[in-house]
Specification:
By secondary structure, the chain is mostly helical. 77% of the residues lie in helices and 0% in strands.
Amino acid sequence: MNLPRLGLLFSILAIATLLSLLLSLAAGSADISWGELWLALSGGGSEHTRSLIIELRLPRALTAFAVGGLLAVAGVLMQVLLRNPLAEPYILGSSGGAAVAALLGLMLGWSSTFVDLAAFGGAIGAMILVFAIATGTGSWTPTRLLLTGVVLAAGFTAATTLLLALSPDQSLRGMLFWLMGDFSFAYAPGESLWLLGVLLVAGMLVARHLNILARGELQAAIVGLPVAPFRLAIFIATSLATAVSVTTAGAIGFVGLVVPHLVRLVAGSDHRIVLPASAIAGGCLLVIADTLARTLLAPRQLPVGALTAIIGVPLFLILMSRSRRSF
């Protein structure tokens, strides 16, 4: 991709991100004019408006951006690892494993730190289980991994349903909304933003290796890439991103599928471009989805995961139809 087109792409992404964040700050059950928004961001305006924007809407918007970026980055890395454009945390059961583990921790009354650790263990455990079952006694293929992940994701969904059925009635609605994607209590974006930044920097440093691995493990081994340690690092990175996303906002699907695929259609397959562009586009998409979830039926809120699925399911079916020759 030449420099002018690259500059245009990231300029469009930057403008879209800025507009989506400003729209998220202005829109809601209590609409705020652009003039009031500017005054509040510059330290003026009424105390009520400043509190609404700075203490409530801004942290929520930044959290949505960070979670969207993490899911998109996890999707990119999974697609490299499995060499399949249909791979992403939700479809392959990684989000489901993290959600089941986190839900168990919540039911047992664990602290937030132990819930986060449980979610990380659930995410990486789900990925290990997918690879172990798909490999069996022979070599794994991307198609076998995908099908195994889809089946395990269905199993995790059933386990989640069972846990919800055993949960106290007074906490059932909140847990259900959280599992479907909810930013109502997401007011601390620092952890998610830091992790997104670390993964992006690390990903850019090894982007050339990702390009090689995407062409196949044999070719990566021929050029001297340590395949096994590199795969393990991708395992850990995707599991950590998935775990933080799930514990922050629940299981939100299809962001890791939709965003990297669309970015590759526009920018090609060079991960020096795909990774940062996917992170920005994923964050922008989830900010818009969360804004719609807050405003479509305000003051009632819709689950964010339902809105991302409305976008993701049709695209998933289109990709499946294009890939059916490989099945």
